[in-house]
Fold these 3 entries.
Entry 1:
Amino acid sequence: MPSSLAAPFGHDLRKYFLFDSEYINLNHGSFGTYPVVVRDYLRKQHDAAEAQPDRFIRFTYPEVLDRSRAAVAEVLSVPVNECVFVQNATSGVNTVLRNLVYAPKDVIIYFDTIYGACKKTIQSVCETTPATCRKVDYQFMVDSHQDIVQRFTDLVNMIKKEGLDPKVAIFDTIVSLPGVRFPFEKLVAACKEAGVLSLIDGAHGIGHIPLDLKELDADFFTSNCHKWLFTPRGCAVLHVPLRNQALIRTTYPTSHGFHPIGNSNVPNPHLTLAPGKTQFESLFEFVATVDSSPYTCVPSALAFRRDVCGGEDKILQYMQSIVTQGTDAVASMLGTEVMATDASSPVDELRDCALANVRLPLSIGTTADADVTTEHVHEICNWMQKTMVDEFHTFLPIFFYGGHLWARFSGQVYLEGSDFDWAGTLLKGLCMAIKGDKMRSFKELDVEDLRQLVSKADMN
């Protein structure tokens, strides 16, 4: 499938990244990656820290960190004193949920497709505080964005009728699995109307979709910079508006920036803080001794995106366009479909991002004529993923949702349509291996058998 989109995007950009020459990175969304120029900047930070540790950590690092905070704040259209860094979005979610103080009637609301680590965080909070939790149920491809918002509103009203207090709701910008856009803007508005705090897990947010946090005005927002913004791992922004910063009493782990109640003038022995910083900013400036140099790489990543890729608008447009074109082609090859609410819409609400999901041509069930028995679904997913990595130098998340197996694709600036065509052939061959006479012993297929099936899929 030739790409209809203009250079500089596509395979010409691979030379700026660190990929193995044989590796096709169709799963940018899980762990991200970053260009060589950002790697070089990161190493300079490491070298400076080792050349004079005290000078760098105590005096240089705070200044470099502030420049990076200012850069990320500009991208998000909010003041710099509302933005700090944490290592990842899961840490950001934990920081907010574990700082909130819960009364016996408080309820934490989450959604059916919440990221697994965040769900476990809620469960942990409910074990150690008086809070309880409730889930908003729905199913993609059946329920629209508006249906999901209505289900949330109905649940809030039910909780209130029971004499309980819905305290905070956590939801995504873009869901991880399935990889779809979530109605976070409408949910923030619904939270405001209901008097519920909004916590956005924007793990797939910054560098992926347009974000204006001033206009959005959520109560808390966190987003990984190392997924889509091209910074090293781990680097995530945590945005807390001034009105809510008093709710964030400590980092995790608690470190030198913590001020006990009644003693707000405790000095930080590790850093010389610039005058005028808020207590919230100081709290996150030094959190134990870890490698925080990825935090300093945001300006370098943004310079690459501007100077090499042409800026945010062009990047976002290409990513979404290539994944839309590519997954349409894969679905056509497999004779299936791309996950969408309305397949006839030119920009479906679920596909308004750079992630997309293609259904695999495998039937799931308990009868003998099913391609995959229900009890073997997890095993099949693991086998396909491991085989792709070991034998074909790529990876796609394979997962079970809504009674079907799906493959999640990421769009990115270094991909072209031919990468999706190749992946479609690969998936077709793997599915042929599972469906064929050797279905029950597909794990025993040797590499040559697999390659022959993939070649056969290509000819078909």
Entry 2:
Amino acid sequence: MTSAGETPDPLDRALDDPWAVWLGRRARTPLHLPDYRRAAVLVALTRERDPRVLLTVRSADLPTHRGQISFPGGSLEAAETPVQAALREAEEEVGLDPRTVHVLGELDDVFTPVGFHVTPVLARVPAEPRLTLTAEVAQIITPTLGELRGLDVIHETRTLPGGQQVPLYRFPWRGHDIWGMTARVLHDLLQHGP
């Protein structure tokens, strides 16, 4: 999106954005988990040749997931769509102005062992978005997709109650340990994206 007087960014046009093309060519895999709590996260990629992905380090003062790395996001409010929730949460957590976000669409649903059914929302944001820390966020990190692709990713398998095996990934990046649902979504982007 551009403001008055700015030169339009060619990546604002969905047909020129390789991520929009990729997303439009793939079949989305939804989940149907009625007993899980619905949530959404914003997978925000900067408008750059080697996009950076917006991640947060959760505050040590939070009651759950202290210090973990995550996408901005949270639970859906009543009658809220995943896109609306992802944009609201990103604004609440890091001050990302939703008017600067170009939503491309929804990625495959994922779940967490603690009972969340999460819809990741893929979007493009300015190369230098205006961000602010809130009490929920200790730090904002923005690794490039190229950096993440170059890492020696740790791959493990966990057996859930009931015997189902699920893949787990860990991205060790600059002293940070990116794992869990965040790592699963990143792994999908890096393995299957443009």
Entry 3:
Amino acid sequence: MENMLFWLMFFTLGWTTIDGSEVEQDFTWHLRKIPRVISERTFHLTSPTFEADAKMTLKRVCGIECQKELPAPSLSELEDSLSYETVFENGTRTLTRVKVQDLVLQPTPNITTKGASVRRKRQVYGTDSRFSILDKRFLTNFPFSTAVKLSTGCSGVLVSPNHVLTAAHCVHDGKDYIKGSKKLRVGLLKMRNKGGGKKRRGSKKNRREANGGDQTEDGKENLKARAKAGRKKKESARGQRVAEGRPSFQWTRVKNTHIPKGWATGGSGDAALDYDYALLELKRPHKKKYMELGISPTIKKLPGGMIHFSGFDRDRADQLVYRFCSVSDESNDLLYQYCDAESGSTGSGIYLRLKEPAKKNWKRKIIAVYSGHQWVDVHGVQKDYNVAVRITPLKYAQICLWIHGDNAHCTSG
């Protein structure tokens, strides 16, 4: 744990060493004007069947150089992809068409593809560099406490008192909602109380009455039965003492789910990896500190070129797993990297720690959603990456609209 804390401190501060001297770099959250995504019309759709398999089924992923060569989408194409489905707790579904205003096209990142080499499919590359967060001092505190688990087996991140950001394929395969997402729940980490809860208090008379009275034969038999059950409970508790103080999940139902039409094609086309993100509205608000959204900067603006995220990898039995790694390549909408991450961590919020403008303090923000392992074409050769979907200004505007219900709070980010 001490080694992990060292690396956490090292890679989240904006320092570099030049000729043996430390120089602080200018890693700052630069606010920019956000385009407006405006809800125009909402239509009722037929209820989904909730029969899709819980796996990503993309037929083709455009490679890095392909992303670079693709023509920029037209405004109408962007508006179609940013229109969104909403599925409600009772199984009903709507489609909302949107309009985009005040859009300023951003320059394409300087994509530098490295020599392509064929790799076998894997999600841990070389030495496993993941950390299991076991100490409750870290587990229940920010930023680790923002990570949540979905009942469908994915991860997510708290982005408001009522909302969780995750990957779209965790609830929808591009054509239909997956099995189990109709009664979708979100698990928030909490620590088990030592001692097994509060003891009930009351007078001896009340306890005798509750036990059926201790003066009759039936009452005596009842007391004996309860005493025997109490002994069994104590014996069982002895075997479970090891589990006391370990984390567990507090599950909350999901009120509704928003998915961009760029992903939820409904069979009209292939789901686009660029739109593999979804927002879940919880039925009950939580009281934990959440992480705000941020615009994804280019690789050159990442401290140490590093990204960070925490999730519930399936091979580590409900442990919260943290990792960081450098970003290898980028396109307009995706980050390509080799962060060690097994299934279950998809949907995690990828974050950075940068300075706030005109302030000395540092702030973490979500800048991408971890989508998972994908094969892409690089110069005609299949190459695999662990891919994340960047939060661009347009996606920021859309997710902000989902969170607040209007765009009045979404003018800059």
